[in-house]
Prior knowledge:
Radius of gyration: 21 Å
Shape: globular
Order of helices and strands: EHEHHEHEEEEHEHHEHEHEEHHH
Number of strands: 12
Bound molecules: adenosine-5'-triphosphate, magnesium ion
Largest sheet: 10 strands, mixed
Structural class: alpha/beta
Amino acid sequence: xxxxxxxxGLIPGDGIGREVIPAGRRILEALPASLGLKFSFIDLDAGxxxxxxTGVALPDxxxxxxxxxxxxxxxxxxxxxxxxxxxxxxxIVALRKRLDLYANVRPVKSxxxxxxxxxxxxxxxxRENTEDLYVKEEKTxxxxxxxxxEAIKRISEHASSRIATMAGExxxxxxxxxxxxDGVSGKQAxxxxxxxxxxxxxxxxxxxxxxxxxxxxxxxxxxxxxIDEQIVDSMVYKLFRQPADYDVIVAPNLxxxxxxxxxxxxxxxxxxxxxxxxxxxxxxxxxxxxxxxxIQGQGIANPIATLRSVAxxxxxxxQEEAAAKIYQAVDENLSEGKYLTPDMGGxxxxxxxxxxxxxxx
Length: 361
Ligand code: ATP
Ligand code: MG
């Protein structure tokens, strides 16, 4: 069988993005040849450094190359300017828009049992990424009692349906992978729809109803997918009391944003948590952390969030076996706990963690 070549765009961005994205490239190059996969890499610019040099944070060339020449991509991190900077806006936000990456997918997995959370946490938050309050249609006006500001919260059937469908697919895929790896997983594939339709009956009501309809499709029902729902405030409570109870959570943009960061706190360092920006047929893996200027250049950035983001990207490129290989090597490194970076309480450098993970590949 001829090896398949996947073309991957590499956008390190700023700060520790430049230290962790090369680690992402190395893990792809270390995948065993028996998987029949080859990779070609294209280095691409974006970020605050790019903005300072060229006046644009996201060059058109980066977007064009991603569209025309790449199957997937890895994005490191970008620094946000500390003072408002004219003409600068976040390149990853723009990239999501221009490539219609309508989902932000964030898996959260615990390393080891703790007294607070004795059962393993292994869940995924699927956040809608194009609408809700983030359409940024705000206005301010004067009244006799002072200023009033308003923002539009927009929810559409189209966006709610496609995000719920993606959540359903992720839940089924996880179920398949779980069954393939431990064979005895008692967990059923479940999607929990999160909303506040008791108060916002039209907007969140539409999200809830549309998501439900999407998840009731025959292909999900036939595969045994369980549909669950939670009002967002009680979701927060339960997520922090019993995170092990959850599988896939789907939410409109704002609730998804808040739940994602909250859930990341359940498992310790930001340096562990991956994400993917996903559209139809394209995925960008992106660690959840920022550019971490406080540790930049010291060679101690935790590469795990990036390695997991690489695996997540591979899942969306339908390379489940390759993804599983990376997850396994990372989990082994963490559970042995011999080579951990300082954010995890260890003393290892990025390079030492990489050598340990690569050895396990
Ligand atoms: P930015 O504006 O780019 O988000 P920030 O100052 O908010 O930068 P973050 O990257 O969000 O920094 O990180 C928050 C904290 O977590 C910092 O103290 C940082 O050092 C730490 N941190 C983040 N990512 C990692 C990582 N991969 N390895 C080790 N520590 C990390
Ligand atoms: Mg930050």
